[in-house]
Design brief:
By secondary structure, this protein is of the alpha+beta class. It has one domain (24-192). It is 22% helix and 30% strand. Strands 1, 2, 3, 4, 5, 6, 7 and 8 form an 8-stranded mixed sheet that branches. The longest helix has 17 residues, at 153-169. The termini are far apart. This is Secreted protein CSS2 C-terminal domain-containing protein. Residues 1-22 form the signal peptide. Keywords: Signal. It holds the Pfam family DUF6736.
């Protein structure tokens, strides 16, 4: 049985806190999204961005909405290729290129160095830009004999920046980009704005 004194204390405590927020800010929904395919700026390859966890404020872009509101409906159908994405109310969003330029340059250098070493191994870690935290994971795959690409570092950097921009503009907390450059090589880059909650080890694009 709940004691009235405890209820009263709870009400009074709510009155002294500004603001007093009711409701569950950890609510999640499933929405159906379509992988985003874009050409690299040099036109020699493409990038596929896969959204895994997005901020619910952005979910209406892929969900069916009512005529006068952007309330998310769970019955969502959308175009050709479909993946189920989790939308969270309180997730951080991957920050823009300008907010973490050194990180993106580091990742482009990492991708290039692993290509030069013909390495298919997984590399992952966490980096900080100002007050923003980013988890990253990268690995290469190939249908040929080598995990290398002829793309120059500046081309890779342009692809990384396009990946980051795409994920940020889509309100993504966790996303993955696959790069190709006209050969057998594929680069898989996973980013997480909340690596402690959504680890980066599973590179799944």
């Amino acid at each position: 049985m709940v004691k009235f004194s405890k209820v009263l204390c709870g009400v009074l405590a709510c009155g002294f806190i500004d603001p007093c927020v009711a409701g569950d800010n950890e609510t999640t929904y499933d929405v159906i999204t379509t992988p985003i395919v874009a050409d690299w700026d040099d036109g020699l390859g493409n990038m596929t961005a896969t959204l895994k966890v997005i901020n619910a404020d952005y979910a209406w872009q892929w969900a069916n909405v009512t005529s006068d509101t952007t309330d998310l409906e769970k019955r969502t159908g959308i175009t050709i290729q479909k993946i189920v994405t989790t939308a969270k109310v309180s997730s951080h969003v991957i920050f823009t290129v300008k907010a973490g330029l050194e990180i993106w340059e580091f990742l482009a250098g990492l991708i290039k160095s692993k290509s030069d070493a013909d390495s298919c191994t997984l590399t992952y870690g966490t980096d900080v830009s100002g007050e923003k935290v980013l988890g990253y994971a990268y690995k290469a795959t190939t249908t040929g004999s080598n995990c290398d690409t002829t793309a120059e570092k500046k081309t890779i950097l342009a692809a990384v920046e396009k990946c980051v921009t795409t994920l940020h503009n889509s309100g993504t907390t966790v996303g993955c980009c696959q790069f190709s450059h006209g050969g057998t090589w594929r680069g898989h880059l996973r980013l997480s704005a909340e690596p402690s909650v959504y680890p980066v080890h599973a590179v799944d694009c």
